């Protein structure tokens, strides 16, 4: 039984992964934290100063950390720099052999850089970790199905509208709504990650895809309308409009962002453009679903029916 440290383990994705690791019970789990804090649901937190690479390496050695899973929400350069320092610390640690880089998103490529600043951060991370002696992987997945169930679906994710607002009965569909998208619940993603931890790091794929369930936004809308018992208010946004950073909503309320300002509109438009152009359809050489068929994948129908049936 190795010891796995989850950096960012108190955040939404990180906490979901911690729960899955604890439930699987094949490894001891601790959470890396910037501050000294009490245990979270029985899991110990190890304080670390990420800005001091040598000190972090010593902390990993002191706790006998075999594997680091980074679950930072990398939305700015400072957080990106922190992950790079954590990679250096893990490489310097005498006992740390494996590293999961923070991703849990689409597979970023050079072509994405003009659209998204964090695409460059992902590419820089891949180049940096390739220079280490660590076994490593990047988890690639499509959007989380949780968003179609919250607040009635148990999830640590914050509410966010991904094209279809099941609760408010409206949708803003990118393109014509027929593009395939690889959906997965955060819980299934975490269970697959936990299962991968049982494998020898030398057998880890550099890119570990999660196929989940393939659906289009049009199909998600149809499921939601059936379960909620009526037609939704729907608008369709063209690819040209989305590419320009603009998007129309039937109602901006409860989208998950604070207000309809230009930066928030750009975030929604870019995400929808990428979805409508096939970037969230996982087609990696190997998927964790196929590798671990015993991990059952939850469907969109199950999430929406369990969350909204009879409401």
Automatic annotation (TrEMBL):
Domain NmrA-like residue range list: 4-244
InterPro entries per UniProt: NAD(P)-bd_dom_sf (IPR036291), NmrA-like (IPR008030), NmrA/Isoflavone_reductase-like (IPR051609)
Keyword NADP: yes
Keywords: NADP, Oxidoreductase
Pfam families: NmrA
Family membership noted in the UniProt record: Belongs to the NmrA-type oxidoreductase family. Isoflavone reductase subfamily.
Protein name per Swiss-Prot or TrEMBL: NAD(P)-binding protein
Signal peptide (residue range): none
GO MF, one annotated term: oxidoreductase activity
